[in-house]
Amino acid sequence: MMKYIFLLFIGCLFSCGAQNSLYINLDEAPIDGGLQMEDYWVWGSSVIKGDDGLYHMYASRWPKMLPFHPGWMVASEIVHATSKTPEGPYQFQDVALGDRGTQFWDGKSCHNPKIVKYKDTYILYYMGSTHPFEAVTEANVSDFDLSSKWCIAARWGKRIGIATSKSPNGPWKRQNEPVLEVEPNSYYSFLTSNPSPLIKEDGSVVLLFKGRSYKEDGVSQSDMSIGVATAPSFDGDYTVIGDEPLFSMERFGEVEDPHLWSDDAGYHMIAKDQRGLITGGKGDGLVAHSENGIDWIIDENPRAYTKTVKWNNGTTIKQGQLERPFVFVENGKPTHIFFATMDGPGGFNNGTKTWNMVIPLKK
What we know:
mainly beta
């Protein structure tokens, strides 16, 4: 039976300033690193090193003609960019997953990419959605917001899927059905999103995901929860483990953007502490560890990062947003953490620019 997560807080956690190994090894962020694209909102990257020696990034983008939020719900596509170094800058190569029509479950939005490889196959996990309406354009964008018909349909339709390729350059083969559907009367009865896979040596999969449920009114949605599913292989049947989430407002606190990785020391998770109930800082990162990818222990000193970033041009800036953490591992050790970030004072409606940045870890 699943044990879930055990919190190991120590009494002096915040008063004594204890820090974990990720936090104390954050280096200066290269000001020209990562991925930026003119005329697009850019968000949420995932990176893998190809057999060609290049570093391949997969990221979400959507036109700046749309508001940042909720523009991604109806127009996000996953793009592919490359660099000779992990830091970048990354150069756009192609659209990996784009619009393929409202008739497909992921036809109008592909978002939150996570790239992994098993044997000779690259697997791109992502969130997909669709809607049955006309496109949002400059002519009707004034009618577009969270309560509009586009967003009501697209939010309800969010599901997790995969695409596969024998090359990081594609082409990508999509499936006609999601790999993780909703379940009535569960904490993920409304949507599944934000996939984070970990493929073990035997090919089996552990998948963390975000879920929301319907509230009692049958219309509105709950706060975010994080659950875990497993599958015998990336293209096998995914089964959600247990009836309760790993994280929720009722269980430890609301968490978003979990990312799993493995290295020489075992299995690890980094995530955003949405309300600061675990780390003490709203939006700060937390770290947890596991022996099997299912049962997780949060660090005694859980804070992995804050929104305050030291840049290699001598500036220190509190970013408006710092989300979607992705830990890149090379030769069995974490070497970089990638983030989606935004300028401005904070809040999705207050930024003018987004990009994917990277912070090297000290060697």
